[in-house]
Amino acid sequence: MRRFRPAIFMVIPLALSLLAACGSSSQAAGGSTSACTTKIDTSKLNLVLPGKLTVASDITYPPQEYVDPTTHSYIGVDIDIANEIAKRLCLTPNIQNVQFNTIIAGITSSTPGNQYYDMSISAWTITPDRQKQVDMIPYFQAGESILVPASNPKNIKSKTDLCGLSVAVESGTTEEGEIKGTGDPTNPGLNETGGACANNKVKLLSYDTEDQAIQQLLTGSVDAAYQDSPVSDYYNGKNPGKFTTVTTVAASPEGIVVRNDNAPFETAVKQVLSDMRADGTYAAILKKWGQTSGTYPPLP
Amino acid sequence: MHVAGLTVIAAAGSGFDWGEVGKYLFDRDILQGALITVVMAVLSQFTGTLIGLLLYLMRRSNFLPIRWFAELYIWFFRGTPLLVQLELLFLSFSEFHLVRPIRQIDFFPSLGFDRIVLEAVLPALIAFSLNEGAYMAEIVRAGIDSIDVGQMEAAKSLGMTYGLAMRRIILPQAARVIIPPLGNEFNNMLKNISLASVIGLYELLRVAEAYGFTDFKPVEVVITASIWYLAMTTVWGFIQSYMERRLNASNTPIQPPSLMQRMFSGWRPKPVNTTAEAIAEIGQH
Q1: Residues 33-52 of A with CB under 8 A from B
Q2: A96 lies in the same domain as A189
Q3: CA distance A117 to chain B (A)
Q4: Does A298 or B75 have the greater pLDDT score?
Q5: pLDDT level of residue B266 (50, 70, 90 thresholds)
Q6: What pLDDT, on a 0 to 100 scale, did the predictor assign at position B11?
């Protein structure tokens, strides 16, 4: 028995060293930008952490947010926009990689300033259901499209052609809701009573991540994968000649998710976004990622 | 599961790429994710075991409300899914206005872990510990109750207090019974840490998922993560086997076979010392 004590109690110094590090690091925090000026008073924005813009994003959604494997940093259209917003508010961007389904709870919980994230930029399509819980500031637009094998063996031309076929989606996405239904009787999902596939249901396969869904299509396990058009375009580009895209929904706006009870913050983000549009920074970011078609409001 | 999937994918000819498996094997973020997994598992198991012991003692209390509390605790934490407890704690942290203070003392960036955030580590650590406590309470109960009551009576008749008898007489013997299921629990713990990916803990699985998307090679990168999980559980298997042998040594001349012996000494595991040999050995002295 005695021999084991040192082994077991090694945990204690480990825990203590963690605590010690905790004590010594507090002075390291703090702003490093001193030359930055903004006309917005950031002390009134109810930020969860002073001097930082805490942004939740599910970093598994190229080309809007994903990880650069060589630099280990988060990149994409949304990340650039979030960083630009932070820069213009003289804040340090603090981007948190969180699973999609947890994000809205992390924004709406508690009272302003005590929740987990100030905002989320993660390809959120603006829907009335979401707007009941949070405010959504439009900054981008994307449609939806179905990816099918290049030869389109099942001859899919529209959403209703999916009836009876197996379709992969990422769980929690709008596309999943369109098939499964969201409980809204005026707008039933394909598989719901009153939906187009009620009698010949779509075999819906929901995956935690988009690439799992696409992988099912690549291996021939499903007949189609259904997702936002920038994502379809991205994966189509990554696998030249393997897929065909079928547009189902024309581009609709995506929004930055903010609390609906924190007006100063929402106003500040809107102000910064309109400044970015006015001076061309916004257009430059979209152009850099090949997403000019995603410009919102739409280009004439 | 992944091995089976691998065959299917290779057959489908979609270009399974072993190079991709190796590409991120020693990636900075993957290693960091593996490290945080081990640290979280060790800390949670440690506090969970202490909570389990405490719950056992509470269950044996003479004061009824304390017994009730222990029973209620175990009933709740064994009766709800770990993932549910994790999300419940995560959201409670913001409801009780704890996120901001926790962020302010977050020391992970200063340790070089720029992706690990205390606001995810803390709810996870607490959820895993509380959950483990309920299971450990049952294991500790089985271990201690397996010791003959005569042991405690004898210890008390020698003038030992309850606490001293527990520490010196009962627990060392109970440890023999507790260690095998405890090892099992820790093995589970190592893998369960991956559940914390939903609340934003940047552990092994979450890192693998992120890379999988980037390169459009999800299966490969998840296999990379599986290799690390297997490495961790294998190392733990050896440690557990060693611990079991050491604990047994003081009590019986019969040695259970080590992991290596179980795997490589013929089809049927052979004890190192048979009883007959041990008796013969004793006879020589």
Answers
A1: 48-49
A2: no
A3: 10
A4: B75
A5: low
A6: 36
Domain total in chain A: 2
- Say yes or no: B115 contacts chain A, CB-CB below 8 A: yes
Assess whether A228 and A267 both reside in one domain: no
Mean residue pLDDT across chain A: 85
> Is the Cβ of B186 closer than 8 Å to some Cβ of chain A?
no
Distances (CA, A) of A89 to A42, A49, A296: 7, 14, 21
Residue A195: which CATH number? 3.40.190.10
Domain-located, residue A3: no
CB-based contacts of A153, cutoff 8 Å, min separation 6:
A223
The residue among A11 and A103 whose pLDDT is bigger is A103
Q: In this predicted structure, what is the pLDDT of residue A124?
A: 93
B-chain residues near A18 (CB < 8 A) = 107
* B201: chain A residues, CB-CB within 8 Å: none
B200 with A97: Cβ contact below 8 A? yes
Yes or no: say if A154 and A161 are a contact pair by the CB < 8 Å rule. Answer: yes
**Are the CB atoms for A162 and A222 separated by under 8 Å?**
no
Q: Do B206 and A211 touch (CB under 8 A)?
A: no
Q: Are residues A136 and A163 in the same domain?
A: no
Residues A136 and A151 occupy one common structural domain: no
Q: Is residue A289 one of the residues assigned to a domain?
A: yes
Print the domain residue range for A161: 143-251
Q: Are residues A113 and A132 in the same domain?
A: yes
Are the C-beta atoms of residues B192 and B82 closer than 8 Å to each other?
Answer: yes
Neighbours of A70 (CB within 10 A): 7
How many contacts (CB atoms, under 8 Å) link A and B?
135
Q: Write down all domains in chain B, each with its CATH number in brackets.
A: 17-251 (1.10.3720.10), 256-285 (no CATH)
Interface test with B, best of A12, A27, A57, A67 (most B CBs within 10 A): A67
Residue of A nearest to B107 (CA): A22
Residues 97-136 of chain A whose Cβ lies under 8 A from any Cβ of chain B: 97-99, 101-102, 105-106, 109-111, 113-116
**At B133, phi and psi to the nearest 5?**
-55, -45
On whether both A113 and A208 belong to a single domain, the answer is no
Going by C-beta distance under 8 Å and a sequence separation of 6 or more, which residues neighbour residue A237? none
Compute chain A's Rg from CA coordinates. 22
- Which positions in chain B touch A210 (Cβ < 8 Å)? 213
Please indicate, yes or no, whether residues A260 and A241 belong to a single structural domain of this protein.
no
Residue B187 has pLDDT above 80, yes or no: yes
pLDDT attached to residue B253: 57
Question: Based on the domain organization, do A155 and A221 belong to the same domain?
Answer: yes
Complex ipTM > 0.90:
no
